[in-house]
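Before the break, one more example. Copy the sequence into your notebook; we will annotate it together after we see the structure.
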Amino acid sequence: MKKFVPVLKRTKLFSGVGEDDILSMLNCLNAAVRQYRKGEYAFRQGEYIRSLMVLAEGRLHIQKEDYWGNLNILNEVRPGEIFGEAYLVPDSGSLLNDVVAAEESAALFFDPERILAVCPSACPFHTKLVKNIFYTISDKNKSLVRKLSYISQRSTREKLLSYLSDEAKRQNSSSFSIPFNRQQLADFLSVDRSAMSNELCKLRDEGMLDFHKSEFTLHGSEAGGIFQ
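Here is what the structure looks like once it is written out:
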């Protein structure tokens, strides 16, 4: 548990809390660690969630597969991000999607009753933690709005440019890496992989970008203006 404290200290959830206090809070919040192999399901559609999860290592994909096997990656959970908060309120129902480890991952699970109830040891950072949860949920909502802006674009080209432009801005560089391979990116943007690959080649031939696997570089006055 202690090895995850430096990671947690850099998250919004534990913002403003020292490492020693985080370790004490993990005990107070009855935290438990779970490890996941690549491809392993952390949660399955239809399950009921009873804990708040914070990803400590790796990446998780929130995804949905239809009756015919078509996969849609709805979002990605990165280290320091939370999952499950939407299902903790009464009558929230069962999980609507699967959550699968995109690589070797580790997650911390917290008892939500310990978070919302008054701390029995009068932990001075308990109130701050509740506030940080609110801020973290706000960030997640912004991420979902960004995803909606990508898939609401009319063409595969527009979806790609919208997503890659946002990644360049987020990473503050015209050269950056994305957390998806080709198939995962197509699933994330809800487009056909072949059509997307063809569009990427066209964009490269037009001099707008270069790419190698998950590494991208944007070119042109539009890309340069992002960082000025």
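The first helix runs from residue 5 to 9. Residues 53 and 109 are 5 Å apart (CA to CA). Try to locate both features in your own notes.
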